[in-house]
Amino acid sequence: MDHSGHGMTMDLPPFTLGRGLAWSADPFFLIACLVGLALYGWGVARLVRRGDKWPVGRTVAFAAGVLSVALMMCTKLNDYGMVMFSVHMVQHMVISMVSPILLLLGAPITLALRALPPAGRGRRGPRELLLMLLHSRYMRIITHPAFTIPLFIASLYALYFTPLFDTLMGSRAGHIGMMVHFLAVGVVFFWPIMGVDPGPHRPGYLMRMLELFAGMPFHAFFGIALMMASSPMVETFKNPPASLGIDALSDQNAAGGIAWAFSEVPSVLVLLALLFQWYASEERQARRSDRAADRDGDKELAAYNAYLASLNTRGG
């Protein structure tokens, strides 16, 4: 039975990392990754030609994000992921928790806003449409924690613990749709928390940290539920092909361990990124205050000293 549309997944040999990383491209994701890299490269080239600077770190982060998606979807990992719960869970975790973080650190929306030319007075071009989308009520809703946190949690429980997962895995289109959903959920969850791009919902740094940790215990519990289960819980992976030489329950337990571990790793990465952004923001604020003080001869301090002196005089 060929779920994935490339490679007979029923006759796969036992999994090894070398076999998993062999080339086996899904056309949809291969084209999407190439288009994403090309558009980002066009934006950077346009800025450079104009004499503007674009941080190399952002380009590296975005390219790494796209390549992480390609690694999961354009190798034999995608074939093994159709019949092995553990490999599928690696795909899910990387695409929903690692790829979005890297893509967001690449600041693609900021790049687009800087690279796309304005359409001119009274006209609407791609740049104007992007700005309209950013300021729309739809965007305010889908980036609000009251939406993103439940969605992040439901993407695990409502998918794996209902027949929906088996239905989606039964067709190539369903499988692609599920993986696109994982990526989208990760992007809308992490964007308000640590995205560099402008967004409608951008709380203070402390609130962002609380948002980050609000979803993680549910994620860890999901992993523990799979690790502790005494029987296979997902129909798709109940009867793995004999050629793999694996036990369905052991493979499910491994999938649970992967889900549990991944709830910790991206949290630490995002927390570090947040602390760095917080520090950089404080530094910029301090520099702005210093420049303002230089311009106005530190009027604020002089006014405060005068206020203290007036209190002193009244006290005397």
Tags for this model:
globular; 316 residues; single chain
> Which overall shape is indicated by the principal axes computed on the Cα atoms?
globular
Residue share in β-strands: under 5%
- Please give the alpha-carbon distance between the first and last residues: 94 Å
Could you give a short account of the major beta sheet? none
The helix content, as a percent range, equals over 70%
Cα-atom radius of gyration: 25 Å
Give the beta-strand count: 0
Question: How confident is the prediction overall: mean pLDDT?
Answer: 86
Helix/strand order, N-terminal first: HHHHHHHHHHHHHH
Secondary structure topology:
Elements: H1 17-20, H2 27-50, H3 56-73, H4 77-80, H5 85-105, H6 108-115, H7 126-134, H8 137-142, H9 145-160, H10 164-169, H11 172-194, H12 205-228, H13 248-296, H14 299-315
Helix pairs in contact: 2-3, 2-6, 3-5, 5-11, 5-13, 9-11, 9-12, 11-12, 12-13
Structure description:
- 72% of the residues lie in helices and 0% in strands.
- It is built from 14 helices and no strands.
- The model is unreliable at 1-8 (pLDDT under 50).
- It has helices at residues 17-20, 27-50, 56-73, 77-80, 85-105, 108-115, 126-134, 137-142, 145-160, 164-169, 172-194, 205-228, 248-296, 299-315.
- It is mainly alpha-helical and 316 residues long.
- It is globular, with a radius of gyration of 25 Å.
